[in-house]
Amino acid sequence: MDLLLLLARRSWRTLLIATSTGLACGLAAAGLIANINHSLAGFGQLRPADGLLFAGLVVLVVSTRIVSDVSLLRLGQTAISDMRLHLSGKLIDTPYPRLQRLGKHRLLAMLTDDTQTISQAVELVPVMLVNSGIVLACLAYLGWLSLPLLGLTAALILLGAASFHWPQRKALTSIGKARELKDQLFDQYRLLTDGSKELQLNHSRRLQFFERLLYPISQQYRRDFVRGMSIYALVLNWGNGIFYLLIGTVLFLAPQFIELSATLVTGYILALLYMITPLSELMNALPTLGRASVSLRKIRALEGQLEVAGTPADTLSPARHVARLACREVRHSYYREGEDGRFTLGPFDLELRAGEVVFITGGNGSGKTTLALLLTGLYQPEGGDLLLDEQVSASTQNHLYRQHFSAIFTDFCLFEHLLDGDDPHLMQQARDYLAHLQLAHKVNIEGGRLSTLDLSTGQRKRLALLAAYLDDRPCYLFDEWAADQDPVFKRFFYTKILPDLRQRGKLVIVISHDDAYFHLADRLIKVDQGCVSETSTEPLAAAAY
Asked: How far apart are CA 449 and CA 183, in angstroms?
């Protein structure tokens, strides 16, 4: 039912066409059985018209099946694609702190495993519709042959359906538990790939990871999934057993109470045997449908936890130049691992101006990264506000506020496709930057795409710097950019890149521990246990000379 609603939301007309043609296919297939049975009974009196009727039914079965299959295939895959795009768009629009709390493993499981499970179920819908039509038409034909036998058939089918209810609930419970464990499995797989170097270097940690984390979760997932699917296997085979029991009843028991002719019994058994395949396929779809219903519930529950941030109208665009960034009584608090209570950054007041290079320094855990996320708008302040030129607020116009920044964080992500890759002037500028960053011998730009990202961390950061330069945003933030660079490029960053951005009138914020270069900053901001204060650079400048 959930799958049909999902398809109906996409296009109820297409669903109606597919459903009607699927049922028509089933009716035509049952008509074929009736025609075959009639032809066998009157084999000696067959006429050319009987052959034409048979051929017409075959054409009807084939044509309606094609229309139903293709219509539902296109509709189903479009619905799944729309679901993936909708979820992806909602993830992008969800505030960064909420995404952090949800975790990458849950989001990846939703976008990959859950949508794939639903896609598999959608692919079964055409088969189910056709088989349902066949079963209904065959039941109608059985009723035409003998109403008492139809009553017996219906009673056994209802008995089988009633006996499915409780086991199916147990099966769904086990599959639901397995699905919850899959989130944990995805998290362990993430650790396995991200921490492969550490696991290979430390055998004890490797044993701990496999024996205490990956193995127990994997085994519990296997047990829950096998339990659920085993219940389904029991249900399916029990259903087949009931059907064969029905055939035995018609053959051996019913003639003791009802007068039946050999021709009627032959037609009845022929129709029942023909029904076995569509009924079996309907029952075999139950496990996939059950898993899909669990995945749909999981997606809806997770989707409900996504807080979509407001996106401004398309007419709003970031300014080409920003004169200043004002922080007024800004405060943000959060939980930190291993500490009681909440860690609070601020409240603090700052005013940063264009054409300045501002360094932010502080110890580990002091709140530097949180400050960076606040300044760029990825975190919204719990108190106070951040304003660009007294016009764009990080609290009320967060999306527009963020568009004024280009940032390279320590956990940066590098995209192989450059923005505006079809602009020849911009691509030539990118090639010039590659030469300045001494990457032209390793990386080419073809069709707006970087030829490789298989580089060292320092080289990848230089590519990220190239992308940031091409963005040409009014505000730049660099979070320990120079930490992975050799001395030559570290000096190049502090003495060439930052002065160039200053000369271009950019507001430049640099998180750095390189105190040997602090004297090059126009201002120095110190973060210490949540307190933000400005420190003079003059003593540092004097010490440098």
From this structure: 34
| Closest-CA residue to 464 (of 408, 417, 421) | 408
Q: How many Cα neighbours within 13 Å face the side chain of 138? A: 24
pLDDT in tens, 472-503: 899 999 999 988 788 888 998 999 999 999 99
The answer to whether the beta carbons of residues 357 and 513 sit under 8 Å apart is: no
Predicted confidence band at 541 (pLDDT cuts at 50, 70, 90)? very low
**Ramachandran assignment for 57, one of left (phi > 0), alpha (psi -120 to 50 degrees), beta (any other):** alpha
Strands 507-511 and 392-393: unpaired
How high is the pLDDT of residue 501?
Answer: 92
| Per-residue pLDDT tens over the stretch 46-81 | 777 778 888 888 888 888 878 877 877 777 777 777
The residue with tokens 């296109």 is 74
Contact 272, 60 (CB under 8 A): no
Residue of 545, 488, 489, 496 whose CA lies nearest to 516: 545
Indicate which CATH number applies to the domain containing 464: 3.40.50.300
2 or 298, higher pLDDT = 298
Burial environment of residue 30 by CB neighbours within 10 A (0 to 12, 13 to 18, 19 or more):
buried
Q: Domain of 380? A: 324-414+453-544
Contact 356, 502 (CB under 8 A): yes
494 Cβ neighbours under 8 A, 6+ residues apart? 482, 514, 517, 520
Strand 357-361's sheet: what is its strand order? 405-408, 475-479, 507-511, 357-361, 523-528, 531-535
Q: Please check whether residues 260 and 365 belong to one and the same domain.
A: no
Rounded CA separation 379/358 (Å): 20
**In terms of Cα–Cα distance, which of 256, 329, 306, 259 is closest to 96?**
306
Indicate whether this model's pTM tops 0.90: no
On whether the CB atoms of residues 198 and 319 are closer than 8 A, the answer is no
Does residue 365 share a domain with residue 287? no
40 sits in the region (left: phi over 0; alpha: psi -120 to 50; else beta) called alpha
Q: How many CB atoms lie within 10 A of CB 427?
A: 18
- CATH number, position 95: 1.20.1560.10
